Amino acid sequence: MLLVQQIIANKEEYIKALEKRNFNAAPILDKVINLDEERRATQAKLDNTLADSNKLSKEIGMLFKNGEAQKATILKEKTSQLKESSKSLSLRLTEIRDELTNLLYTIPNIPHSSVPDGQSDEDNEEVYREGDIPVLEDGALPHWELAKKYDIIDFELGVKITGAGFPVYKGKGARLQRGLISYFLNKNTDAGYKEYQVPYLVNESSGYGTGQLPDKEGQMYHVTADDLYLIPTAEVPVTNMFRDDLVNESDLPICCTGYTPCFRREAGSYGAHVRGLNRLHQFDKVEIVRIEKPENSYQALDGMVDHIKEILKELKLPYRILRLCGGDIGFTSALTYDFEVFSTAQDRWLEISSVSNFESYQANRLKLRYKDINGKNQLAHTLNGSSLALPRVLAGILENYQTPEGIKIPDVLVPYCGFEYIN
């Protein structure tokens, strides 16, 4: 969430910057500024009214003490009017604050200066590529056919139990899935990230804290009886562990990792491009989250990118990195890099990780601050990244590592899985 004082100071700059997102910010920023002016004027009136009321109360006390009850009674009528006025002003002040907060929730983050112009994912900028795309034997299969051939993922059984988008992993498929989770977590903890196990359901405040609400409300599963939400990513509970916290500067950076299943309604997602593991309603993901001092956050973002590059290099999967354009970047992000692995059997790139710097946008919603060396409270910067999302990594391994003898397991995963081939 943007700070009102920053909007006032940088209005024209923000309007121009948000044009990258194809977002017409001028009307809403004007409304924010006008509401803030009304808020300050109403607060001043309330403060003056309360001061007058307190002053009269003291005068009334002195009049009663001096035996001037009649004068005191007249002033009491005036204080009653002031109390009614202060009550009305307090109610209006609450309305203005709520309206202002709800308005600020609708404004996306200011994109970083390096974010390229563009309307959609077709305008994203490729910034890095590594790995050779393997040449497969004739008759190579997409992962959903391989899953059926080797009986390692059962999509139909998932439909029977729940519905489309909830696959059942079986035998070596389940063991490979478990091995990937352990491998990712070990890589993250070895890099200095502290591991957490967090709830899979969050309350409304957590959804607002990291920006899933109200922006992505329709994409989240809502447990209406308890007003809880199934998490779309571990980013939500992990980052919200620090909601309303004031940390010391010496505590930064705070580096967290965690494995969770993720739940996404993915409303409106249909077609051949979402077959198999390409898009699911429930999937597993290992996440990394960082809380940083503002001056260090972009160096930290580069470090997160390098960390994920190392994982993909060890998995020996061909991948590329995209800098997302203004029309494709997430609502809360200032800068995002997407990692995509090449699916040889599908002849297309599949997104497997998204690494983002939110700057102070989430921290302002979360009220996540740190006390600097001068004793002043400052908003921290938050970052997060998939390290990694399992379905498309698994799809890439199945398709790129298929051989006539079966599916070869990447060497780095063999100790985690306990086998070298799926056959």
Give an overview of the whole structure.
The chain is an alpha+beta fold and 423 residues long. Helix content is 42%, strand content 22%. It has 13 helices and 19 strands. The chain has helices at 4-9, 11-18, 26-65, 69-105, 143-149, 155-161, 171-190, 204-210, 235-240, 297-315, 361-366, 390-400, 414-417; strands at residues 125-130, 153-154, 168-169, 194-196, 201-203, 222-223, 228-230, 246-248, 254-263, 282-292, 319-323, 335-343, 348-357, 369-371, 377-379, 381-389, 402-403, 406-408, 421-422. The strands form 5 sheets. Strands 1-11-12-13-16-10-9-4 form an 8-stranded mixed beta sheet. Strands 5-7-6 form a 3-stranded antiparallel beta sheet. Helix 5 (143-149) crosses helix 12. It is elongated, with a radius of gyration of 27 Å. The two termini are 51 Å apart.
Structure, briefly:
With 423 residues, this protein is α+β, with helices and mostly antiparallel strands.
